[in-house]
Amino acid sequence: MRLDIRELNLGSDSAERDINLGLAEYFYPNVTYQKFLSGRKTILVGNRGTGKSAIFKYIAATETRKGNLILELSPEEYSYELLSDHLSSEEDGFWRKQSAYSVAWQYLLYTLIFKNIAQTKRGLLLGATKNIYNYVASKNLLQQTSSIITLVDYLKRIEQVKTSALAGGLRSQGLQALYSLEEIQTLLPSLKTVLKNTKVKILIDELDKGWDNSEDAKFFIAGLFQATQKLNLISPNLRVYISIRQELFDNIPQIYEDAQKIREDVEVIRWGRNELLELIGRRIVHSFPQATRLDAHKLWKSIFVAQMTSTGVETIDYIIDRTQLRPRELLQFCKLCAERIEYSLAGRRIDEAAISAAEESYSEQKTRDLASEYRFQYPYLLDVFEIFRGKRSHYDKEDLDYLLLAIVCGEYDVERAGSWILNMDYLELKQILWKIGFLKAWVPRHTNRRTTLAGAYLGHYEVPTINLENIERFRIHPACTSFLHLKAPSS
Predict the structure, then answer these.
(1) What does the alpha-carbon distance between residue 225 and residue 44 come to, in Å, rounded to a whole number?
(2) Quick one: DSSP state of residue 437?
(3) Under 8 Å CB-to-CB from 424, ≥6 apart: which residues?
(4) pTM exceeding 0.90
(5) Of 107, 179, 300, 429, which one's alpha carbon is 20 to 30 angstroms from that of 202?
(6) Contact 71, 238 (CB under 8 A)
């Protein structure tokens, strides 16, 4: 089937911008989505660009159409700087901040639920819910617009009682009232009455926006996790969902204090080749409805030539290999290819020349994005990547270890990254470069539920449990090859 590539529109990389422009039509309902839709999972963990926001936006749109009560907390609701500016440190405030944040989050979520029940007039004919409407009116909740201010105000109330000059008994009484959510408790029977006939879903997404790695930021998220667990016990018809980046989830120690409690609620989003191909196929069909009957492989071949002429590698595999199996990266690369159709010698299809032209831009974007993604754990990663510029793309174990040893010993100038990298054990640096996806390891044979490979270079995102010291061959991720001008092996 001949399609006019100039009419191809793959949509936006951002679910926030795309939800009203086509996402509802070409959303791919993968296994992770099904688990969240059913309420079996409530904590979505994934790297940047893996589709977390798309899942949450699609759930919100779907559930709203069903008439359910949906609350979305957007990135604009969070302000880590505001938290640090207005609250004393844990040591100075003489308080356990995680517990305080947990109860403040519960207070905020309850007030948001009550406010939306009043706005949508849920349970209005049920006499038992009258006190919810009275509470909303007495607290002037319908006029309140900032969730973060509500949360900070409750934290300040706890802090003021903690640091007040009240006698011990009065202070304890005041704290007990705040920590037990005394003013909320009398409303819970009415809430449960509403929940018998109404489903309420709260979606809290993009907690990494504005993240500053501060004490308050960590307690903010750890407290949210605790609060979520408590609210999700109230009724099967009330669910609070959290989306969080893998990097934050793995590096907030406070979360792991409750790891066993939340493990069964956590779903880590991962993609395989066929799922990514299906995702891009649905977007192609959105531009060309006449191709609806074609399967994903034929849809791809209607836009791209089948193979890279120089290597014989399928174009879909060539492009996916330059991602970390993240939908956003696949979309970015494919859109760049479509923009460079004038380089193509294959007429109406994107060929190797257009792909190569797109790769120059994509490689720089991906390499810089990778450094940005881990900027709080490993600041100035780009200065580390620059050490590899112009060198080889492939290494055996001995050569790679020698290069990494030279880096940590200061033989190479890593500039601003020196604050954390100098005098580090070279094996630790190898582990870091592997975990962030900059390094891929040669695995002789690998089988999982998505792939069976006789031998391939795999990243941490594909096979996270291997022992690096048993790996004899490595390569720099192909996404970085073009930007860093890495030299391919001679054979």
Answers:
(1) 12
(2) T
(3) 408
(4) no
(5) 179
(6) no
Domains of the chain: which residue ranges? Answer: 31-268, 272-373, 381-484
Residue 409's pLDDT is 94
pLDDT of residue 34: 82
**Terminal Cα distance for the chain, rounded:** 38
Judged by phi (left if over 0) then psi (alpha if -120 to 50, else beta), residue 140 lies in left
The long-range contacts involving 330-333, CB below 8 angstroms and separated by at least 24 positions, are: 330/276, 330/279, 330/280, 331/10, 331/11, 331/13, 331/280, 331/283, 332/13, 332/362, 332/365, 332/366, 333/358, 333/359, 333/362
Q: Where are the beta strands (DSSP E) in 147-301?
A: 200-204, 238-245, 266-268
pLDDT (0 to 100) of residue 125:
61
Residues of the chain with pLDDT under 50: 94, 447, 449-450
DSSP 381-396: HHHHHGGGTTSBSEEE
Contact 164, 156 (CB under 8 A): no
Instruction: Scan for tokens 């993604």, then name that residue.
Output: 373
pLDDT of residue 450: 47
If you ran DSSP here, which 8-state letter would residue 76 be given?
A: G
Amino acid at 220: F
Q: What is the pLDDT of residue 71?
A: 94
CA distance 307 to 318: 9
Record the tokens describing residue 328, joined without a space.
């956003």
